Amino acid sequence: MDTKPHVLVVCGRNKRRSRTAEYIFKNDMRFIIRSVGLSPRSERQLREEDLSWADLVLVMEQKQRSRITEAYRQLELPSIEVLYIPDEYEYLDEELIELLTDKINACLQSAYGI
Questions:
Q1: Which residues pair with 33 in a beta bridge?
Q2: Tens-digit pLDDT profile for residues 89-99
Q3: Which CATH number do you get for residue 21?
Q4: Fewest Cβ atoms nearer than 10 Å: which of 39, 64, 81, 85?
């Protein structure tokens, strides 16, 4: 692959899960990561431009995938994978870091062989 894939990580409010993912992978040389939230109260709320930028979207819950596909059905969406990580962790929680690391690495391996 000539260019690094762009990975967008999405959760509810971009406070804990997606922000933790962005933090732990921000210096990973295999890909470029960004995080956003779906809530209007998110510091960085999902926009059409984020979806156009992304090669792969990772959401924490199935309902988030559904919200994106419904709200942006007019777009040609990138692949959206569900990580199945519940909203029960704090930002940078050790267990959350372990879950995100394992699941995101598995998605990257599956999608890009990296």
A1: 7
A2: 999 999 999 99
A3: 3.40.50.2300
A4: 39
